[in-house]
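for ur thesis appendix - Ser/Thr phosphatase family protein. copy paste whatever u need, i formatted it the way the template wanted (i think)
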Amino acid sequence: MATYVMSDIHGEYEKYLLMLEKIQFKSDDTLFILGDVVDRGARPVDVLKDMMKRPNVYPLMGNHDLLAIDILHKLNVEITEENYSDHLSTETMTELIDWLKDGGSPTLAQFRELSVADRRDVLDYMEEFSLCEAVDVNDKTYVMVHAGLGNFRKGKKLREYTLQELLMDRHDPEKDYFEDDDIYVITGHTPTVLICGKPEIYQSHHNIFIDCGACMGGRLACLCLDTMEEFYI
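the 3d part is after this line
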C-alpha cells in the first residue's frame, strides 16, 4: 500500500493514465488529487469519469473545478421564457466568457456530449470534492490543499478559511506555517517553474509544491509520500 499525491491534471487524460501506469497504481493504494482536474487540456471529463470509478482516489477542490461547477449548473437547465433572465443574465454570460477564455472550452465541449444522467453524476461527484485533507505517513503529517493557507495564523480552523484563501491565494514557499517539524503542507496551483525555474517538485520550509505545469508544456508530477519518490510524465 502506498499513498500518492498529484495535482493540476487540467484535462491531460493521456498523461494521467500514463502516470497511473508508471506508479503501478493498485486498488490498495491511495491517491490524492489536489484540484484543477478540469479545463485547458483536451479531455477533462474523461479524467473525471476515470476518477469516479476509483474509490481510492480522493479529489480536492481547485479554483477551476469550482468555477466549472458553478457555470455548468447554470447551463445544465432547460431554458424557457420564464427562467431566461435568471439563467442567461449578463452576469452569467460574462462569467461564461471569462471561463472559456481561461481554458473552460474543453470542459464545456465534453460535458455537452454526456447524457443528462451522466451530467448529473459528474456534477454530483465534483461537488463532493473536499477543500483540505490531512494524512499521516511515516510519522509525518501532510496537510493538502489546492492553493495554500491564505491569511494563515496559528490556531485558525479550516472553517474559518474562505474559498479565496484555500483555492486562489498562493502559498509562500519561504514560510514555515507550522512549528512542528513533522507537519508539511502540499499544494498545487502555482506552477513550480514560477518558483524554481524548473518543472519539477519543489520543497522548502516544510512546503511541497507539485504543480509542474502539465498543461503548459511542463510535466505531470506525482509524489509518493511513503518513499518521497518523484514521478514525472
